[in-house]
From TrEMBL:
Family of this protein: Belongs to the FlgI family.
Primary residence: other
Oligomer status and interactors: The basal body constitutes a major portion of the flagellar organelle and consists of four rings (L,P,S, and M) mounted on a central rod.
HAMAP family tied to this protein: FlgI
Species of provenance: Tropicibacter naphthalenivorans
Annotated localization: Bacterial flagellum basal body
One function term, GO molecular function aspect: structural molecule activity
Domain of life where this protein originates: Bacteria
Pfam families: FlgI
Assigned GO CC terms: bacterial-type flagellum basal body, distal rod, P ring; outer membrane-bounded periplasmic space
Signal peptide: 1-21
Protein task: Assembles around the rod to form the L-ring and probably protects the motor/basal body from shearing forces during rotation.
The name this protein goes by in its record: Flagellar P-ring protein
Length: 368
């Protein structure tokens, strides 16, 4: 009896840990209305490069922006001919976080748009960053940290990474705030990152149980609204704090994701395969050229002749025959059935495509 009780408690603890592992916080499943970032973009100039900048004959826009910057600084370059190789035109991008305030700093990314070979050691000159409405929300400046290495000699050149793009941590300062008064909201709209009716219903139930009254309502598969007047909180921010850490067990569509470039296959836990038979083989065409040079005997008249010799063959692999993949009721059984085919990951991708086309793969098939 003691052994049975001990076994029961171990199973109960295992089930509880499994349930907790499957639960996800609401803040990781939804986006709150108004709490979002905004994309910023700007056009600037990086200086101080070691001869790796734009060729001004191939990038006339670099010379134009140089002239504009120098004229704003009081340097008259009208009619002058200058061909420096230590400057590069770049596109600067960044994200303005939600509730960013004037004076705050954000990270930015700098990318060359001309024929510059590297941005290593360069400095971005003051660049305004605009949002979709055309207004300037931040100003960027600083030393570029490029993500690559370049070395060059007289007869060889090696490049690792991408030296034509880099980042500037805290490289932009916020100059304008997004006009949004979060305190004036009378209700919250929670937008699911992956719309699903079951997940939305569970979010509604969890919020209502935690508050003790019906404050949340599922509008559709991707939206849950929360009546702030029924939450009993002083401000909308307090309401978000009260609900964002509640745990929900999400439901997602079964999905198989394959990356043909690397041969990677990822399957979700809900993937199912109906009973199906699979046969797979390969055909290889091999052509080899081995020309033979025939020379005349020593001191004899004649000339060297090259006689072509070509070997052509077609090889067909025996394949796996007709193998049965049984009905999969769990992910482990699906994997075991597919592994029984004994093929490489790239061949497995083709097999999964064919199983999906036959209607036996019950999941979304995503090819990257």
């Amino acid at each position: 009896m003691l052994k049975r009780l001990l076994t029961f408690f171990i199973l109960a603890i295992g089930l509880c840990s499994t349930a907790q592992a499957q639960s996800v916080r609401i803040k990781d499943l939804v986006e709150v209305e108004g709490v979002r970032s905004n994309d910023l973009v700007g056009y600037g100039l990086v200086v101080g490069l070691n001869g790796t900048g734009d060729g001004l004959r191939n990038s006339p826009f670099t010379e134009e922006i140089m002239s504009n910057i120098l004229e704003r600084l009081g340097v008259n370059v009208t009619g002058e001919q200058f061909r420096p190789r230590n400057v590069a035109a770049v596109i600067v991008t960044g994200k303005l976080p939600a509730f960013a305030r004037i004076g705050g700093q954000i990270d930015i990314t700098v990318s060359a748009i001309g024929d510059a070979s590297s941005l290593l050691g360069g400095t971005l000159i003051m660049t305004p960053l605009n949002a979709a409405d055309g207004q300037i929300y931040a100003v960027a400046q600083g030393t570029v940290i490029a993500g690559g290495v370049e070395a060059e000699g007289d007869a060889a050149r090696v490049v690792q990474g991408v030296p034509t793009a880099g980042v500037i941590p805290s490289g932009a300062r916020v100059e304008r705030e997004v006009e949004f008064d979060f305190t004036q909201l009378s209700s919250l709209r929670l937008a699911l990152r992956e719309p699903d009716f079951t997940t939305a219903a569970r979010i509604e139930d969890v919020i209502n149980r935690a508050i003790g009254r019906r404050a949340a309502t599922m509008m559709d598969a991707g939206t849950v609204t929360v009546d702030l007047g029924r939450t009993g909180t002083a401000t909308p921010a307090r309401a978000v704090v009260a609900i964002e850490n509640l745990a929900v067990e999400p439901q997602r569509r079964a999905r198989v994701v394959v990356d043909q470039r690397s041969g990677t296959i990822v399957m979700g836990a809900d993937v199912r395969i109906s009973r199906v038979a699979v046969s797979q083989g390969g055909l290889t065409l091999r052509i080899e050229e081995a020309p033979l040079a025939i020379q005349p005997n020593p001191f004899a008249e004649g000339e060297t002749v090259v006689v072509p010799r070509t070997g052509a063959a077609i090889e067909e692999e025996p394949g796996i025959g007709l193998a049965e993949v049984p009905t999969g009721t769990s992910l482990s059984e699906v994997i075991a059935g597919l592994n029984a085919l004994g093929v490489s990951p790239r061949d497995m991708i083709d097999i999964l495509k064919s199983i999906k086309a036959a209607g036996a793969l019950h999941a979304d098939f995503v090819v990257m």
